[in-house]
Amino acid sequence: xxxxxxxxxxxIEAYLKKINQGLADLLTDVNRRxxxxxxxxxxxxxxxxxxxxxxxxxxxxLFVFGYEGYTCRPTADIRGLFTSAASIELxxxxxxxxxxxxxxxxxxxxxxxxxxxxxxxxxxxxxxKIGPELAIVAGDILFAVAIEALLAIxxxxxxxxxxxxxxxxTAAHTGAGEFIDVVFGxxxxxxxxxxxxxxxxxxxxxxxxxxxxxxxxxxxAGAKRQEIGRLSSLGIAAGQAFQLYDDxxxxxxxxxxxxxPVLSDLVEAKKTLMVIKAYR
Amino acid sequence: xxxxxxxxxxxIEAYLKKINQGLADLLTDVNRRxxxxxxxxxxxxxxxxxxxxxxxxxxxxLFVFGYEGYTCRPTADIRGLFTSAASIELxxxxxxxxxxxxxxxxxxxxxxxxxxxxxxxxxxxxxxKIGPELAIVAGDILFAVAIEALLAIxxxxxxxxxxxxxxxxTAAHTGAGEFIDVVFGxxxxxxxxxxxxxxxxxxxxxxxxxxxxxxxxxxxAGAKRQEIGRLSSLGIAAGQAFQLYDDxxxxxxxxxxxxxPVLSDLVEAKKTLMVIKAYR
Lengths: 280, 280
Prior knowledge:
mainly alpha
């Protein structure tokens, strides 16, 4: 049992290294091939710096697991697998950048948000603060790069098309989840139902963080329709549970356990499911 | 000669009808299939209203021409051609929505910009004005829909992948053009070179409006590499000429000819190539 755990941990470590390398190589390549470093060195440099910050990389890991679970080829032989896995991380980065603009956040992954970074680093004659405007566009570009990244894997083109359809459907769903979440933030607690809040959990966390990466990997590996259906149900349920547990930890765990201040959901007046339940 | 002109005009009219129908059908389908109308009726309704506003549809038209010019199949037989053509129009809409947020514009195509529409139509308990935040997300969703639209055409999957790579590379280039354009707007005229301004023309207009749709169509039709190279050069040159002529008309034509007030570039203090040249 311990042996399995050690092997798993070692494998995850090795995969994380490959995912991070895939991200770094991709951005170097894109900046060169699209000429971004020439068009705007600041755009290229700070977007890359933002993406390569330390993160959990849970989505690309699940993508690789989804692929491994259904393929009959040895993973080491699959050219471009880890670059494709980076696509879902880039989609996440693009959304974080836009969310930070929307929420006017100053910090992300322990460093300035991208719009703050642009404001600090780009010198303008009129000293205007246009970081948020520039970060909207930088996020859009990362969305484009995310799509391209997915195409990197050497796999059957029909499967790639299925995985791509899953990626863009999930991007649309996550966007819709963010849309209603922003609206809910300006509504009264008594006007929101548990169903409303649970829908944002499903769209913003369950589908995007867990279901989509698993299903994309499985689609690329050629999993059958029925298997995809099961994996999707599993991913959504696991993702919903993850979000509920996250809410729970924020209220009842210690800073030592969750690695960030507790009760921060309450401080930010987030309308979590537990807040709604407590209010009722 | 007149006969050719009449035939061309009739053909364009017929294509425009199919493109508009393709856009309408796609949005109805996406709103239903992604459940957007259920998640947020306002998001679904106003995004659709925005996209279906009267526009020139020059990009999807060039896409269809690019396809027709290189295919050996009769266009009428190609299922999904006009839905695929709609992809470049949706990409344009997504960019317009974000540009309008960045420029804080109030009108687009003679009606309120999408963020203004959200502010007018979405009632919030705290009366906050969050239209721009919501429009950023609505734009992101249309980008996802644009990618899906491109996949509609019944064509060889390798060709579809090539066309998709072109679409996302162009989205990245147009974004980079917008990025430097926003920065240039806050710099002194004397600090900008003709080369700087011409680069924004190439990225924002020539590649996006002319070259990309033509080349995407040709790639889907299976045009050879060398032909694509030629078409790309032609598209970029035509697009640059189009932008220069547009600048010229703004200064020297009449409102009757261009259908909008003349000298508006000067009123908006746009740093056009002619302004830079006049300043030197």
